[in-house]
Inverse folding.
């Protein structure tokens, strides 16, 4: 039997596949999910937050955690949705590896509307500043909470002191509550009303 070495005739150049980008819109919001559970925080900060929440609930405060850990991809989507909704040029939004989104629609109005729908779905449409591209949420060292109560309350701080809070507003923006939170090493956002729900290890 005679054998022959066959020379491959096909093109051996690796194929390059180009995947079409998907237009922005609210369908992106469930992707790259974060967490609202305190168990997603770093161990030390989780203990601090759980202790603060326990003290607030014991005082009759309603606490609704909204966000703890946030993947970088989610931060990117939130940041640019807010910025485009508020006037940024969608063509200037940089690409991010792993996020195959197209911010530029056929018309500027459509681009802005899609960004607005995303911001509403992310519950960030009323923020005074864009969500950070990189924040302590990415490091598992921040939590967003909706906090409300009625009347005068008495809450125990981390030192065991009972603190009466009879001032307004009766929300997480209350100055007395911020001091109590700091005693647990849970610090209110230092930027004022631009990010009302935000607490972290540093106040940033």
């Amino acid at each position: 039997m005679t054998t022959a070495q066959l020379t491959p005739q096909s093109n051996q150049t690796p194929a390059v596949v180009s995947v079409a980008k998907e237009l922005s819109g609210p369908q992106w919001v469930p992707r790259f999910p974060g967490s609202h559970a305190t168990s997603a925080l770093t161990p030390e900060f989780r203990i601090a937050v759980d202790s603060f929440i326990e003290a607030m609930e014991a005082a009759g405060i309603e606490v609704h955690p909204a966000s703890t850990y946030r993947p970088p991809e989610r931060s990117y989507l939130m940041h640019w949705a807010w910025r485009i909704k508020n006037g940024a040029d969608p063509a200037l939004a940089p690409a991010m590896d792993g996020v195959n989104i197209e911010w530029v629609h056929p018309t500027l109005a459509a681009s802005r509307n899609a960004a607005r729908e995303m911001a509403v779905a992310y519950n960030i449409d009323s923020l005074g500043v864009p969500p950070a591209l990189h924040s302590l949420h990415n490091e598992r060292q921040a939590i967003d909470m909706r906090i409300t109560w009625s009347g005068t309350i008495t809450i125990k701080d981390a030192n065991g002191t009972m603190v009466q809070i009879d001032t307004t507003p009766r929300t997480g923006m209350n100055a007395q509550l911020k001091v109590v939170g700091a005693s647990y090493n849970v610090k209110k956002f230092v930027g004022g009303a631009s990010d009302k729900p935000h607490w972290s290890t540093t106040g940033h």
Notes: Residues 107 and 199 are 38 Å apart (CA to CA). The domain at 22-200 is CATH 3.30.1380 (Muramoyl-pentapeptide Carboxypeptidase; domain 2). The mean pLDDT is 93.
